[in-house]
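Project outcomes to date are best conveyed with an example. Our students and postdoctoral researchers have been running inverse folding experiments weekly, and each run begins with a structure described purely in tokens. The record below, which covers 479 residues, was selected by the lab manager from last quarter's runs and is presented without edits.
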């Protein structure tokens, strides 16, 4: 337990250091809110240092059980401290709203309860973006180093892909983490420069770069990306949303060996092909059912479809008025990007495995004595992994149903309950009904609904099983 508390102390100390950035921004801009971040940073630092000092004599290694507990504890504790600046900001933000916004930020969901974003202090806007950016790198590390170790939802399949020693790209875990961090920072800076060149002012460019690479979707404006009129900006966003949705370990392999490796990966090819297919369908749909010219229909369909598929959650058009196309947007909410990326939702590799499994089952029905192994990227997959993915998908449906029922009991209508549950569980952001549209906002929901949704965001980000495992009596026995 001391090792867990020690690491939590280190994470809180890092969070305290991150809070000094919006502090400086507010101080330089002459905004009195800098005191909010000063107090929040000192408070977070105090608890972080206390945990570090009190648990300095800790064991060297974590057990599997401790890794489960640490992962859950980190995603539960950090949002609480991340909520402090919202609570102390003087904007009249309640504890419920502050925690909701912080959870949405760190899980890179992008749902917001705040309105009047255009008038908020720059430090608070930057803090929202930095929460998502910090959460994004945390998600990559969790997907590359922790979930494969815990064998959550078939993620053990990524154990070989993420640490492929045959390629000798970066043989040690520390070097892999450093390399991923460098790629993450480089893509963020490149995105900020591209946004600036395409027409954003520097502050908007930096904020949107952080939330684009993190595939989080927080914006500095109430109407999200539709605030910007420069025609090149949506295409810049599409490019970098897609880049944020690709496996970051593959970037290291591409840099170290062959740039084409990125596009030789089966998961990447399937993901990009799926995006092209959805964009084509939605383009024709919008063109035939609205008054949009063909290119405008293509532009809006491409931006909003990629945004939802990658779980970023930006919007630049009210697709809820596209008629039945809203159903398509609800369906692609459950897509997600590649494993080892910043995206949420189910993830593409699980659909690939299930497709291979279904083909295998159909072939066995036709040829009962034949041998039809389940394969992924040309390699046979064990029945343990197939069972793990099947269980994950089943639990996903059960969780969606349960969260939808919980939201309905708070008084929400059917469409809003179902879509809000989906967008929380998949960490996408915008939904349908009362939480849809260009200015989709969760601020008018009841406190109970917000706590349900915050729990759904954490459940989805922790890949379901981690929290369910912690809820069993067997896990705590002889801990």
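After processing, the design step wrote out the following sequence:
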């Amino acid at each position: 337990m001391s090792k867990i508390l020690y690491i939590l102390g280190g994470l809180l100390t890092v969070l305290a250091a991150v809070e000094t950035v919006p502090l400086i921004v507010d101080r330089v801009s002459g905004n009195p809110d800098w005191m909010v971040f000063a107090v929040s940073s000192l408070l977070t630092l105090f608890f972080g240092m206390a945990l570090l000092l009190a648990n300095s004599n800790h064991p060297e290694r974590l057990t599997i059980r401790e890794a489960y507990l640490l992962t859950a504890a980190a995603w539960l504790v950090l949002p609480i401290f991340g909520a402090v600046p919202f609570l102390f900001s003087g904007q009249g933000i309640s504890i419920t709203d502050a925690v909701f916004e912080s959870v949405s930020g760190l899980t890179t969901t992008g749902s917001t309860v705040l309105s009047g974003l255009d008038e908020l202090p720059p430090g608070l806007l930057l803090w929202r973006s930095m929460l998502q950016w910090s959460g994004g790198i945390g998600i990559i590390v969790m997907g590359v180093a922790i979930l494969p170790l815990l064998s959550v939802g078939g993620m053990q399949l990524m154990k070989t892909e993420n640490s492929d020693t045959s390629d000798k790209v970066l043989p040690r875990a520390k070097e892999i983490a450093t390399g991923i961090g460098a790629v993450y920072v480089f893509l963020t800076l490149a995105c900020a420069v591209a946004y600036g060149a395409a027409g954003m002012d520097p502050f908007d460019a930096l904020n949107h770069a952080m939330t684009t690479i993190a595939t989080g979707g927080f914006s500095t404006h109430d109407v999200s990306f539709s605030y910007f009129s420069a025609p090149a900006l949506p295409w810049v966003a599409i490019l970098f949303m897609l880049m944020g949705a690709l496996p970051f370990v593959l970037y290291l392999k591409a840099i170290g060996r062959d740039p084409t490796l990125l596009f030789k990966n089966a998961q990447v090819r399937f993901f990009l092909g799926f995006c092209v297919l959805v964009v084509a369908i939605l383009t024709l749909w919008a063109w035939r059912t609205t008054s949009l010219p063909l290119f405008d229909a293509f532009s809006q369909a491409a931006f909003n479809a990629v945004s939802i598929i990658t779980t970023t959650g930006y919007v630049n058009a009210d697709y809820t008025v596209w008629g039945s196309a809203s159903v398509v947007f609800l369906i692609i909410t459950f897509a997600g990007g590649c494993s080892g990326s910043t995206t949420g939702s189910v993830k593409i590799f699980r659909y690939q495995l299930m497709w291979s499994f279904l083909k295998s089952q159909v072939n066995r029905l036709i040829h009962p004595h034949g041998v039809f192994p389940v394969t992924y990227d040309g390699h046979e997959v064990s029945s343990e992994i197939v069972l793990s993915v099947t269980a994950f998908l089943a639990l996903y449906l059960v969780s969606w149903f349960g969260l939808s029922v919980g939201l309905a009991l708070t008084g929400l209508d059917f469409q809003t309950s179902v879509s809000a549950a989906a967008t929380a569980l998949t960490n996408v952001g915008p939904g349908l009904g009362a939480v849809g549209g260009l200015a989709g906002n969760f601020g008018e929901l009841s406190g109970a609904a917000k706590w349900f949704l915050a729990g759904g965001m954490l459940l989805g980000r922790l890949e379901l099983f981690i929290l369910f495992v912690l809820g069993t009596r067997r896990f705590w026995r002889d801990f």
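The first strand starts at residue 375 and ends at 376. The two ends are 9 Å apart (CA to CA). The training component of this project remains on track.
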